Amino acid sequence: MGPRLDEIDAELAALTELRDKPAGAVRITAGEHPAAAILWPALADLLPAYPDINVEIVVDHGLTDIVAGRFDAGVRLGERVEKDMIAVRVGPDGSVSV
Fold first, then answer.
1. How far apart are CA 27 and CA 66, in angstroms?
2. CATH number assigned to the domain comprising residue 30
């Protein structure tokens, strides 16, 4: 029974290591400005630390149906959010001079 318990302990240790090492694909849709000002700087710090994460950013100018487009997240300027979506602030309020 001892060797089998050692095998189980080794498998549990391997699972714990995988849990602590994020991996996979993330698809994000964003406007041009949010992609350049928010996403790229954040990813520049994140991706070297987690090389097993693959991020695809699709830049467009309209509102995209995140579900139909099979995106994991969307980043847009403003406060307009579809009623079934959850919004989280990812950057500071901006000021515009005209």
1. 10
2. 3.40.190.10
| Whether residue 27 has pLDDT greater than 90 | yes
H/E stretch holding 48 reads: helix 40-49
The domain tally of the chain equals 1
CB atoms within 10 A of CB 31: 20
> Is the separation of the CB atoms in 30 and 56 below 8 Å?
no
Closest to 63 (Cα-Cα) out of 50, 46, 47, 79: 79
pLDDT digits (tens, 9 = 90+) for 35-64: 998 899 989 988 998 899 999 999 988 778
Please choose, from the candidates 60, 71, 66, 67, the residue with its C-alpha nearest in 3D space to the C-alpha of residue 27.
Answer: 71
